[in-house]
Amino acid sequence: xxxxxxxxxxxxxxxxxxxxxQASYSMYIVHFLFAWYLFGWLYHRFGQSLNxxxxxxxxxxxxxxxxxxxxxxxxxxVENPGIAWGxxxxxxxx
Length: 94
What we know:
Elements: H1 2-22, H2 24-46, H3 52-93
Helix pairs in contact: 2-3
């Protein structure tokens, strides 16, 4: 019963994750900026007043969201033009 429910909704669920998959390499390149600095800032700002699990969930959510936003920009402005440039070089060499 549960498996049938999950399989029925799988296309919709993967539709939400597809943009993250498309930006995954750019996210890999920039995630350390948010993972390192954001968690440090959150800990120093809220470390004594928030439950550590809430702090972790908040930090993770913010890090993924900010990483995705920056990765979308670098995907369009750096990665895709670089891939196109590389393809043109390879085609000229053939």
